[in-house]
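Below is how a single chain appears once it has passed through the pipeline. First comes the sequence as given, then the structure the pipeline wrote out for it. We keep one example in the README because the format questions we get most often are answered faster by looking than by reading.
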Amino acid sequence: MTDFPYIGGIEVSAIQNREFIRIETDKAQAIVVALDKSNIPFSARFGDAEMVLTYDGSYKEQVEEIIAKAQSGDYEALLRELQVYGVPDGYYRLLGEVAELLNTTVSFLQSRPDEVQLLLCKFYVDLWLCDKATLQRELDRIITVNGRTLSDISEYERKKVQEKTPAEPVQTADKVPTFEELYDAYQRRHVNDHFTREAHKHLAEIARRRQRDEQERIIQTEERERKNRP
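Resulting structure:
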């Protein structure tokens, strides 16, 4: 029998609709933290390479989403990206992803105070491993103004713009820089530094991740436009 040195969550007896899974992963601690932040009832026992998880089956999709995100390695790539660009630039570069998650535009977020933009991006990173609904809910709370959330304000302003210029196309996400552009920007900032193989690997990973996210945003934007057509 495998000995699991770590435990997390609540008592199994307190979990309704219990479902059980056993997975091989070295990301168990990250999964446990994300489940807890997402307020999902669970009980976990885990070690360095395996975990046993019991959870409320009503949250099956959220649990599967969290596990998939943790296993993907994308979160580690995100943290390395922040290391490359530093603070606050690394966070501000995430505004496009935050805007997409909140169904608004980058320009709308940029119209908010700098401290709000930075707080949004920091929370986005902190909660990245959580399920999408939790991310949206928590980010929306950050900029609640007089009981009106960002989504409420954004929707109101979007409708006002549409009423004035109904033929104006929906604004798409900002263009994501290519690897060459990232490379040039990095060289300008570190003109006297030795461009190491590790730095090259980091930037290549960033570029791949950004290009993939850009493609997904384009597809989602086109789908929204098709749905909104009369």
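The beta strands are 6-9, 18-24, 42-46, 50-56.

See the next section for the split statistics.
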